[in-house]
Q: What sequence folds into this?
């Protein structure tokens, strides 16, 4: 039996204007999520990244020069925690979510 690799992609908007967002890729193999990769972006600029794996390992990085306010950092972190929690459950949802 061959394992099928599926990559789901989408965007989570953090602010009302849609300028701050998280672009994510979720890789699944054999019906299980094996990896989640996020890119934290403002307009076209990459501000940081996140990787998460089913064993609970999470790498979270925000660029020192990102100029995100404390409220924006908290909103980004909360959205990422939500994404990680939902990514490692059975697939359901849409490709665009509102934080």
A:
């Amino acid at each position: 039996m061959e394992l099928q690799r599926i990559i789901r992609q989408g965007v989570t908007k953090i602010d009302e204007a849609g300028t701050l967002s998280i672009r994510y890729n979720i890789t699944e193999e054999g019906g299980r999520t094996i990896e989640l990769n996020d890119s934290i972006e403002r307009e076209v600029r990459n501000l940081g990244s996140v990787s998460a794996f089913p064993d609970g390992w999470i790498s979270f990085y925000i660029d020192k020069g990102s100029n995100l306010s404390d409220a924006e950092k908290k909103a980004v972190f909360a959205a990422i925690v939500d994404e990680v929690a939902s990514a490692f459950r059975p697939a359901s949802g849409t490709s665009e979510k509102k934080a």
